[in-house]
Amino acid sequence: MLDQLRRDVLDANLEIVRRGLVLYTFGNVSGIDRASGLVVIKPSGVPYETMTPEDLVITDLDGKIVEGKLRPSSDLATHIHLYKEFPTIGGVVHTHSEYATAWAQAGREIPAFGTTHADYFYGPVPVTDELTAEEINGDYVLNTGINITNRFQSLDPNAVPGVLVRGHAPFAWGKDAADAAYHATVLEAVARMAWLTVSLNPTSTGVSQALLDRHYQRKHGAKATYGQGK
Question: Where are the strands (E) in 90-131, listed by range?
Fold first, then answer.
């Protein structure tokens, strides 16, 4: 079932390892088949180096296992909530990458300090509110997803394809699992550059709106000029 999606999600999981975004079994990637409403996700606690497509778990959007012998990622409920609330996304990545996690632990959004950031995130990378004790002691994983989507009530998840969960770590997403892994990689890069920027100049205010517009729109706007086109 969903053999190609399983292979794609496995490769995206291996990509975040190749890019140095995870240690041991930290982190996970999922992808969704919108036609069937089924999600393919990394199994919980399985080492990346031994993982095969058959190890990946298929669930429905209620979190019920449809196919697979292993338990799905413990972050499944967060992924599912994002798929339900962000209907244009096809892949979700969660990591504990070093610099993005540092910003999340500090409870600070990542400002758009430069054009590298502006190429991929149309404005700051937001940070969520702190979960309440009731949310933590309740359905914690689902509440993490709700906390993310609450933060995006006035934001476009396609224009800002990532978030910092306060006190926790980043999530990123994209049109498919590979695109989500790409955004997670870029998020870690801009988090590192932002940390260096603040270290060198604590009063930096970031790029102007004009420069942010110019760089984001050249890649993602209706008249995008970056790359070779279709």
Answer: 91-94
- The one-letter code for the residue type at 65 is I
Q: Is 83 a catalytic residue?
A: no
Length of the chain counted residue by residue: 230
**Structure tokens belonging to residue 139:** 């359905």
- The pLDDT tens digits for 58-103 are 999 999 999 999 999 999 999 999 999 999 999 999 999 999 999 9
Nearest to 127 by CA among 105, 143, 142: 105
Q: Which residue has the tokens 């298929």?
A: 58
Does the global pTM surpass 0.85? Answer: yes
Of 39, 68, 65, 74, residue with least CA distance to 55: 68
Mean pLDDT of the chain: 95
Q: How far is CA 23 from the centre of its chain?
A: 17
DSSP state of 131: P
What the block records as the tokens of 35 is 């036609």
Amino acid at 28: N
122 is catalytic: no
Q: How far from chain centre, in Å, is Cα 133?
A: 24
Q: Which of 119, 122, 129, 139 is catalytic?
A: 119
